[in-house]
Amino acid sequence: MTVETWTLLPSVPKVATRDAVRAEADGWTGVMLADSQNLAAELIVEMSMIVARTERVLVSPGVTNPVTRHPAVLAGAFATLQAESGGRIAVEIGRGDSALAHLGFSPMKLRPFRRYLQALQGYLRGDEVPFDPSFVPAHVASVGDLGLGVAPEGSSLRWLRPQQPKVPVGVAATGPKVIAIGATIGDAVSFSVGGDPERVRAAIERARAARIESGFDPDSLRLGAFLNIAVHDDMETAARITSGKLASFSRFSVMHGKVTGEATGADEAELERLHGKYDMTSHGRADAEHTTLLSAEFAERNAIIGSAKQCLERLMELRELGITRFFLTEEFSREGVAGESHAAIVEEIVPEVNSWT
């Protein structure tokens, strides 16, 4: 199975497109953009700009959510981009985080998240999807109230071309229940449990078990991992480089205050402290105060840091577990040691990982 390397880009007008063009030239398989309307530029617009300016690179949200768009709207947008790009679109979706927090909401609950995923997949396949009033505000009345002679009885993307490749849906997951949902409904599961091989192994085992229990071939499920990465020969410097993104991604393991995702006892205290002091108004910022809460030892266990050789050894260990999609997240800065780390990733990490099978 082909191994993929993905990079998360700053979702800023003009900047995202420029960086996507560079990422394509640098050999990345795909580029991701955050879907967080208050903190980042509009996802679909920026994806459209990238598709128009690139030729090969895959494009995906990293990640979208099930609340701010009806599944028909989300599916229609991505299917349109799929047609315009010649099949270069993928979807990563989770229960929601900063996009919802900045509207005053928490992540979607599990049962409606499952229904949303089922509807999204149905739309992308071209199926007729039953109406579900839970996807719209309660004050919106039924179409039946109009008394039409003939009213729609279901919902589908009627314009979808049968020959168009279906947009693959990956589910970003940390806890066991979301992993199981992703394994049974998604085309892929992308684990956000850090880079500790034991945590990744446990997540893979949960996904495969859920897939088998549902009667599906476990080998047909693609497995990915969101990994914070920094290349530097000095571990403390590497830990400092990745501290901002590591704090943001580590928070998923303690979203509701209780640690999930098979974290070890040594990490639980740090994760709980992070949860108690996390500043969502500074989400994703490298200078946020909460970035100082995770130790260098935590980073060494949970991020991919060190020399290029050390990072490749860590990544190969995860590849041997079954990971084929590497979502490598680094700091956005291209100055100083962060810039040196980025250059090493592009020159030494990406081409090597892309050569793996």
Description:
- The protein is α/β, with parallel strands linked by helices and 357 residues long.
- It has 13 helices and nine strands.
Shape: globular
What is the H-and-E element order? EHEHEHEHHEHEHEHHHHEHEH
Q: In percent, how much strand structure appears in the residues?
A: 5-15%
Total beta strand runs: 9
The quaternary state of the protein chains shown equals single chain
Radius of gyration: 20 Å
Number of helix segments? Answer: 13
How much helix is in the residues?
A: 40-55%
- Uncertain ranges: none
Largest sheet: 9 strands, parallel
Structural class: alpha/beta
Termini separation (Å)? 6 Å
The overall average pLDDT, rounded, is 94
Q: Can you give keywords for this protein?
A:
357 residues, alpha/beta, globular
Question: What would a concise description of this structure say?
Answer:
By secondary structure, the protein is α/β, with parallel strands linked by helices.
Topology of helices and strands:
Blueprint: E1 4-9, H1 15-26, E2 30-33, H2 43-53, E3 58-61, H3 71-85, E4 91-93, H4 98-101, H5 110-125, E5 169-173, H6 176-185, E6 188-191, H7 197-213, E7 222-231, H8 235-241, H9 243-250, H10 265-277, H11 296-302, E8 304-306, H12 308-321, E9 325-329, H13 336-354
Parallel strand pairs: 1-2, 1-9, 2-3, 4-5, 5-6, 6-7, 7-8, 7-9
Helix pairs in contact: 1-2, 2-3, 3-5, 5-6, 6-7, 7-12, 8-11, 12-13
